[in-house]
Structure formats: structure tokens, C-alpha cells
Amino acid sequence: MVDDFSKLSGLQLDALREIGNIGAGNAATALAQMINAKIDMSVPQARIMLFSEVPDLVGGADKHVVGIYLRVEGSAPASILFIIPVEKACLLVDMLMFKPLGTTNMDNFGDMEMSAMMELGNIISATYLNALAAFTGLKLLPSVPALGIDMAGAVMDAILAQFGEVADHVLVLETDFRKEAVDLVGHFILLPEPGALDTILKALGVSM
Amino acid sequence: MGKIIQVGMADLKLAKAPDKLMTAGLGSCIGICVRDKSKQLGALAHIMLPLSTQARNADNKAKFADTAIELLVEEMKRNGADITRLEAKFAGGAQMFKFSGESDIMKIGQRNAAAVEEYLQKYGIKILAKDVGGNYGRTITYDPATGDLLVRTIGHGERII
């Protein structure tokens, strides 16, 4: 079993990046439809990182963010994190709820706003996973989303801790979504569990 | 003016006054600070999990409460501290997400806090203060000169313990 991410070859990382590409492409389209704006994504990355490096992907452990977390069950268990800087999350809520931009802020961010963000996380994740499932033939089911508004490190550490018992590194499939190619919307991060890697690599035809 | 030394997740560092130690964005993780007052020497470990014995990979000692505290004691001793005089403060151990039918892993903060307390006591290190639990993150700065632990949060105030 692959329980050490550092043993992955360049070819395998390329294959993982490709599934990240397929998933994120579909998720970007879903996001664009929801907020009625043109959404672009960065080139997806497949990287093996130390735990301590993961919060740097989203601006550092101290960065104030909205984090949406979903667990992926099924044949290849994983965690999904959608991390959005708070000011961007407020704009997203305005777009989702058809309010003038600037209406929502952290002081009036209540249950309704949280629910809107969770729904957004739900749709993006489901779209991403559906594309992945169609491509690999794997069964992938997202859990109900959970939402945290706090420092990026704090939002992520319990999720990273799940990997801590088996490894010092995580495999990160990451994409940034951007509005009109420049304005950051959020970071989409998929963390496959070590035990799921064999399954994914086999489905992609690049197993060890 | 001293430096501020950053400690990452699953990492451990020492500092001598006037330098300070800092770790950002503790959620379920815990920042354990120990100090030898007379030597003005302090150390901070940012742990993620309670016990190395439950893990399949325990190479990084700073990742677990039990081995991190052992390592804190060793490193302090190696740098000239009198380990019979160590004092400790710690912060973190929150539960950031709530799920219905809460899984064990999401209670990790609580388990971390219990393990830190247990192992500090086991090594005979006096606990002067702690700031644990809740559902919010913490960024902490430890001053080996005074032993002050500054806890900053978003929306839950700022305090020195």
C-alpha cells in the first residue's frame, strides 16, 4: 500500500494533476453558473507537502478565512477543503443571494449566509467528484459540508491531523478559482487519504 | 529587540530572551510552552495529535503530545536548563467543526488537551496556565523573559495568560 507520498513518481503526480484538472474544470463551470460570472481556474497542482506548508497555500496559518470541509466516502476516501478569504466570501454571498455587492460583511454573517456558503461548497465538491468518478469509475460520495470561519491554520489542523497518524506529508491537489481571470474567489484543495492512493492510481492505470 | 521565532505545525523550537516564540492558527492543535525562568530559556512545541503510540508513523516527535513533551525536556536540558524547574503554559485544543454524529477525529482538540496535561504532569512540569477548548483558533506568542503567553483570536479577544 502507498502510505508514503514521497514514493510517488513524476508520472503518477502528472496523472493526479490531470484528474485535478478534470474535476476543477467542471467545478469552475458550476461556480460560474451559480454566481453568474466568468470563472477561470489556475493550473491544478499535485504536490507533496509537509503539514506546516499547507496553510501557506491560502496565505498563511494566520489568514482570516471561511473554510468549507467535506469528507469524501466511497472507494477512495479523501478530504475536501474550499478555503475563501473572508472578504471574498462576503462578496460570494452577495452574488449568491442577489444582493448589491458590499451588503454582506463579517458582522452580519449569520446562519443564512453560512448556509449559502455550505451550499456553494456542496455544489462545487459534488461537481468535482462527479467528474472524477466518471473518469476513474470510482465511487465517491461527499458528506454534508461543515463550515468554519477563523484562521486558516485553525480551520485546517484537525483535518490534517487525520493524516498525521500515518505520514508527515500530505498529497495536495489544489486549484485556485478566479473571477475574470484575476480576482481570487477561493482555493479548492483535495487531500486523498494514503490508503486511497492505490485505488486512484490503479483506476488511472499508473499503479506501482 | 529580540527576534520572533516562528514555529510551524508539528515543529518545536527554543528561544532565549529577548527572543520570543510564536505559532499561528492553532485550532485542534496545541502550542506547549515551557521555560526555565532562571536561564530565561523557553521552548514551544506545536503538536497535532495526542499519542505517538496510536500512530503508524511516529518519526516526527514534535507531532505528538507524549513525544513532544519528552523532546521539550531533552532539548531544554541539552541547552543548559535545569529540568527540575521547568514551568509550562499551553493553548489550543479547539473544536472547529461540528457535525451531527460527531466522529472521534473531530474531538481531537479535547484529546490533545488531555494528553498534554497528562504528560506535563508525568514529567513533573508545573502547569502555570492554559487556554484551551472552544470553537475558535488561536495565535500565540511566548516570551521566555517573562513567561507571558499572549493569546490572540479572531472575535474572541486577546489575553495574556
TrEMBL record, chain A:
CDD domains listed in its UniProt record: CheC_ClassI
Signal peptide: none
Keyword Hydrolase: yes
Alphabetical UniProt keywords: Chemotaxis, Hydrolase
Family matches, as InterPro entries: CheC, CheC-like_sf, CheZ_family_phosphatases
Gene3D superfamilies linked to this entry: CheC-like
Classification via PANTHER family: PROTEIN PHOSPHATASE CHEZ
Presence of the UniProt keyword Translocase in the record: no
One GO MF term: hydrolase activity
Occurrences of domain CheC-like protein (ranges): 12-45, 112-148
Name of the protein in question: Chemotaxis protein CheC
Biological processes per GO annotation: chemotaxis
A Pfam family hit: CheC
From TrEMBL, chain B:
Reported function: Probably deamidates glutamine residues to glutamate on methyl-accepting chemotaxis receptors (MCPs), playing an important role in chemotaxis.
Keyword Hydrolase: yes
Stated name of the protein: Probable chemoreceptor glutamine deamidase CheD
Catalysis performed (reactions): L-glutaminyl-[protein] + H2O = L-glutamyl-[protein] + NH4(+)
Gene Ontology biological process terms from the UniProt entry: chemotaxis
Pfam family, one: CheD
EC id: 3.5.1.44
Gene name of the record: cheD
Keyword tags: Chemotaxis, Hydrolase
Family (UniProt): Belongs to the CheD family.
Organism of derivation: Thermosyntropha lipolytica DSM 11003
GO terms of molecular function: protein-glutamine glutaminase activity
